[in-house]
Amino acid sequence: MDERLKVNLDAWNLMTGYHAASPEYLLAEFKAGENVLKPIELREVGDVRGKSLLHMQCHFGLDTMSWARLGANVTGVDFSDKAIALARSISAELKIPARFVQSNIYDAPNVLREQFDIVFTSYGALCWLPDITRWAQVAASFVKPGGFFYIAEFHPLTQMSANRAGTTKLEFEISYFHTAMREDPPGPDYSDHSKIVSETHEWMYRIGDVVSALAATGLRIEFLHEFAECSYPHFPFMKQSSDGLWHIEGDPIPTIFSIKATKA
Ligand SMILES: C[S@@+](CC[C@H](N)C(=O)[O-])C[C@H]1O[C@@H](n2cnc3c(N)ncnc32)[C@H](O)[C@@H]1O
Question: Any idea what the CATH number is for the domain that residue 18 is in?
């Protein structure tokens, strides 16, 4: 595996333990029967009953198994052995049918030789990937003719802004055109600030990079949506509104984007 991804893998194996214990990840609620998918993807992906669904970068599988609870036949792929082991144990404990495969996303076509009605990925997936063109090719290769790819992801504008405990407002620190890899030193976990995560390597992709990479695979872009409302409290200064979603005061920037792309 690419050395840069090995560094990220160590960090994700650590984070899996932190996130399983973090209230933000809703493991207890999930075990009690809750669906942990967010309103944006529930609305935009639509009815999944009887559909085969591949979840790329599934972490420990709560979103994947939420799709299973809605009737999809699900497969989750992630490179973290700790995350895949936890996903399998939750699936067995709750008797939710799901298949979990451990693989670097770039190697997944060698491991999973099939196609799916729906290929899904979400929130916090793209920033770990060094090659958006190859990522789009992998995603497209998994879509059955007549099926679709769907992503709901943090908007790159949110990656440009400072985001530390105590950050009180939007403050852009890097350019929208900063495409070079960033080496983040060890620091607090985003979900549990009391835990320290080892160093990570991250990338930022502009909306145009993502759309162009998907379009170049031959998928047809059905929509690109941008949302002010955020599915997670991404910044400490966000406020939750009555619909349960999170806002920056005045909604100055999009915080989430989503894309649906179909295969003829
Ligand atoms: C923020 S999490 C995604 C969370 C996801 N929205 C969910 O359903 O919980 C990012 C995931 O990407 C995985 N990941 C990062 N780089 C990867 C790679 N090269 N191949 C496969 N998985 C990767 C990590 O292990 C982690 O589980």
Answer: 3.40.50.150
